User: What shape does this take?
Amino acid sequence: MPHIYLLRHAKTEQSLFKADFDRELIEKGFHQIEKLVKHLKKESVTFDTIISSPARRTEQTAIGVQKEIWTKKSKIIFDENLYSCSSDYLLWVVYEQEKKGKWNTLIVWHNPSIEDVVNQLLGWKIGHVKTCGIHILR
Assistant: This one.
């Protein structure tokens, strides 16, 4: 069954000396990815496309997932607009994937916009999305 997956990046370093865009994952973040991948494999999940913000932490998260859940069709698209866009833009990305028939898509993004999009689509509040938290749109 086709799905679109919305994934918040894994746990990152907190740094006053690095630009937000350049913050990297910490060890806990890499462990979160391992745990997520194990669950996705158990459920036989594969992705045709991975769309990611180009920020370092989302890039690391997307690549970490792709390395373990890869198909010949699988590729990562780094969308410059995903770094600091509104939830409306993410909704547009979701609808574009639907229009193209690309329903096995992973979108790696930031909070609070993931919460906003899921809230809009569900019509009720989901609460805080933790790092490496995933929501599945069916």
User: Anything to note?
Assistant: The chain is about 40% helix and 15% strand. Residues 50 and 76 are 5 Å apart (CA to CA).
